[in-house]
Amino acid sequence: MAGRERAAAANRRVAALVACQGEGRVLWRLGNRQVERDRGLDRLEAFSDGVFSIAITLLVLDIHVPQVERGLLPALLGQWPAYVGYVVSFVVIGIWWANHHELFEHFEHSDHVLMLLNTLFLMCIAFLPFATALVAEYLPRPDAEGYLAEAVYSGTLLGAGVMYNLVWRYAARAGLLRGELSPEYLRQRHRRGLLSMLTYVAALGLAFLSVGASLALCFLVAVYYALPSRRRFSRSAGR
């Protein structure tokens, strides 16, 4: 009897899920309860994943196969700026993707403004392969051109940071977040977002003094934000 009851309950859940999908909604589980999730969020995430995957793949195109008859090793080593740019930007974009995925786990609904803000964020991500190629080309040059190239790179990350935080802050103000997020966690995310933007501003200013130091700061910011957020749920949600 117990097995039949579990099977019947599972069938009812599947039927409810199919019905909700037909209405443009998705039910997913949080602990022991079901939460309704806007299907527009799934489309946003799918589109965003596509942009991230293309941007991170384009990075390797700046690394070329040397066309030499002899001296392959020196030719490979001579491309070290392209390797540095590839590693840094691959890590940065990968961590941006992971944090973007975590960000959308906080959302319960979407609207037109959220889609537009997310698109502007993705515009910055899609620009990163060009900014990476630019900084790799001028990285060995400690002159005004090298400083400008790094400024473009760190400025691109600053733009991405600004738009990412606008997505989060708009969702919080527009009531698009899941209700079980604790006020303390919301304040923590606000502080982390402000810290990231200030750090990228510092990296942008540092670009005109030291290209290497600015690039290292951008990399360290990404590594810091690879750490997971904590204390997400309120006590009322049973977490």
End-to-end CA span: 32 Å
Total number of strands: 2
Low-pLDDT runs of 5+ residues are: 6-35, 233-239
User: Major beta sheet, specifics?
Assistant: 2 strands, antiparallel
The level of helicity is 55-70%
| Domains (count) | 2
Output the keywords.
single chain, 239 residues, mainly alpha, 2 domains, two-stranded antiparallel sheet, 8 helices, 70% helix, elongated, disordered C terminus
What would your notes on this structure say?
The chain has a two-stranded antiparallel sheet with strand order 1-2. It has eight helices and two strands; from the N terminus they run H-E-E-H-H-H-H-H-H-H. Mean pLDDT is 82; it is low at 6-35 and 233-239. Helix 2 (39-58) runs antiparallel to helix 4 (80-104) and helix 6 runs parallel beside helix 8. The chain has 239 residues and is mainly alpha-helical. The protein has two domains: 1-30; 39-237. It has helices at 2-22, 39-58, 72-77, 80-104, 112-138, 144-173, 183-206, 211-224; strands at 25-30, 33-38. The longest helix is centred in the middle third of the chain and has 30 residues, at 144-173. Strand 1 (25-30) and strand 2 form a beta hairpin.
